[in-house]
Design a protein that fits this description.
With about 150 residues, this protein is mainly alpha-helical. Helix content is about 65%, strand content about 0%. This is Membrane protein YedE/YeeE. InterPro entries: DUF6691.
């Protein structure tokens, strides 16, 4: 049953991306072009999503399990560290250069958009590179610290 609701949530998310035009990289790049022909529609989509999600998150914060009985897993880290900042910069640079972020890129790729397939391939390669780097054995440097 959980897989069914996960699929349903993904379909609703994808449909929302399509209906709002967020699978079109030109629309996203228009939002990021604040000095040119700025398109504020992405801000309206984000605002609408926040308006829907905020009360639900407030309600869920008072619960320990989802409606399907699975434990709710909230983030535990609260520190802004180098990895978070660098990851955010990489995400933002990719979004600004390509006009895609992961969700809309997958929806666009599923609809046959060639540039989205290129983005998804680069995204998967980046995830594989990250996994490879993270799984490498840690070595001690000349000061005795792990690197």
């Amino acid at each position: 049953m959980r897989n069914f609701f996960a699929l349903l949530a993904g379909l609703v998310f994808g449909l929302g991306l399509i209906l709002s035009g967020m699978t079109d990289p030109a629309k996203v790049l228009g939002f990021l072009d604040v000095a040119g022909a700025w398109d504020p529609s992405l801000a309206l989509v984000m605002g609408g999503a926040i308006a829907v999600a905020a009360p639900l998150f407030a309600w869920l914060r008072r619960r320990t399990h989802s409606l399907l009985g699975t434990p709710l897993q909230w983030p535990t880290r609260t520190v802004v560290d180098r990895r978070l900042v660098l990851g955010s910069l990489a995400f933002g640079a990719g979004w600004g250069l390509a006009g895609f972020c992961p969700g809309p890129a997958l929806v666009s790729a599923a609809s046959g958009h060639r540039e989205a397939w290129l983005f998804v391939a680069a995204m998967v390669a980046g995830m594989a590179l990250f996994t490879w780097i993270e799984q490498r054995p840690k070595r001690k440097n000349h000061t005795g610290d792990l690197t």
